[in-house]
Amino acid sequence: MLSRPQDGLRSGPPDISATPVDPPHGRWLVLACVFLALVFDGVELGLMPVASLSVAQSLLGTGYTPQLGAEWFAWLTASLMLGAAVGGIVFGALGDSKGRATAMAWSILFYSAFAGLGGFVQSMNQLLILRFLVGLGVGGVWPNGVSLASEFWPSASKPRVSGILGAAINLGILGLSQVARIHPITPGSWRWLFLWCAAPTLLGLFVARRLPESPRWLASKMAPESGSNAAGSARIDRRTLAIAILLGSIPLVGAWAASKWMIPWADAVASSTMPGYKATAQGYWAFGACLGGFFGAIVAGRLGPRLSYAFFGLLATAFTSGLFLGTRPLEAAFLPMVFVQGLAATLFFGWLPLNLPPMFATASRATGTGIAYNVGRFVTAFGVLGSSLLVRQFAGDYAAIGAAASLVYALGIGAAWLYPASHFESARVLRQENPE
After folding, report:
1. Which of 15, 193, 237, 330 has the smallest C-beta neighbourhood within 10 Å, fewest atoms?
2. What does the alpha-carbon distance between residue 307 and residue 313 come to, in Å, rounded to a whole number?
3. In whole angstroms, how far apart are CA 377 and each of 35, 55, 382?
4. 326 CB-contact burial (10 Å; exposed 0-12 / middle 13-18 / buried 19+)
5. What are the structural domain ranges in the chain?
6. 352, HSE (Cβ side, Cα atoms, 13 Å)
């Protein structure tokens, strides 16, 4: 039977003697809530690529130019990434001190509330601030949700669970693209989409009231009282953290500095004749990305963390540069290449929930994964701003920008071999404990 806190949001670990958790029931509820939280995370991540040019045209009026629209897309993306980086670190630490479920609830409430307020903005600067605040919540969901699921599902089914979570964000992007395809986002009609993004508030309240806390986290918090030395296990090895940051950064920088330019590129080429084409392109990408996120974990479970990461880096480099150099929006090959690139570039996001958590002890897992995943977002923010400079350098040539930025994926081929050999066994044990 699941426990239910009596007075609002939980502020600390409950008394485990008074709040028994039914593990089989609890693990499915946890998986469902983490999955939905990441789906709505994906909606927020996919919002500006599909809506930014229309929003800029509406708010800038006669001052809008295609180049200015591209620059605002980069700034809005960077603002979200900076917010996500801060939020991932802050809410990750909160997850280790107050509980994964509590921190995840606050994260969901943050991104829902501030996304909804975006429907009332009157200037691009107001939206810039709100996207940073949305990012705080977006960043907080991943480390707490993945840590919670990892600790509730420490079994042989772990690659499948990681694959489901790896696909969730991109499933949100896919759902958003279909909504935008049916109801095109235009300069005269976009505020409704931001208001709709406030709906996950209900999920945040449910998580706060009903989601069970991780038994492993509860045990780590009770350990000092029983005389064990939990403080030592909470320390994070600096070298391990640095490697985790590098491995978490490459997919994120690649996704936002390179991959995401395909959507505004499609919008710029086709908006005058086919306003729904950008949503169609995002749909093809997101469908491929859902498959990539799922099968990335399966392949990583078979090949191991090093070989799979290097293989993913090779595929992402080849198909991203091939997309931008070998085709163009409205050409017959464009949408199939978008699908393939989405699949190849997001294989990493099945790898990450499977192989990052085992690098850190339970007492510091949300903090460690939060730093590792979200420091990458700091790098991403500056990478996106750097790619915005390429907008001027290449005179708004999205193909040249995307092709140049795609080289970041090639770094993954070498970085893969830094994954610590000492964690191969811990990753295997974490997947095989408590087999079903």
Report:
1. 15
2. 10
3. 21, 24, 9
4. middle
5. 23-214+237-432
6. 32
pLDDT in tens, 82-132: 999 899 989 999 999 999 999 999 999 999 999 999 999 999 999 999 999
3-state SS class at 237: coil
Q: How far is residue 137's CA from residue 88's CA, in Å, rounded to a whole number?
A: 8
Give the Å distances, CA to CA, from 321 to 223, 308, 326, 338.
Answer: 51, 20, 8, 11
Entry field: residues in the chain: 436
Strand partners, 189: 186
For tokens 């090093």, what's the residue?
A: 306
**DSSP character string of 259-274:** GGGHHHHHHHHHTTT-
CATH number of the domain located at residue range(s) 23-214+237-432 in this protein = 1.20.1250.20
Strands (E), 42-180: none
Give Cα separations from 288 to 45, 177, 226, 347, 408 (angstroms).
Answer: 16, 13, 49, 10, 20
Residue 436, burial from CB neighbour count under 10 angstroms (0-12, 13-18, 19+): exposed
How far CA 40 is from CA of 37, 170, 251, 355, in Å, comes to 5, 10, 20, 23
Query: Can you say how many angstroms the Cα of residue 291 is from the centroid of all Cα atoms in its chain?
Result: 15
**Residue 418 near residue 359 (C-beta atoms within 8 A):** no
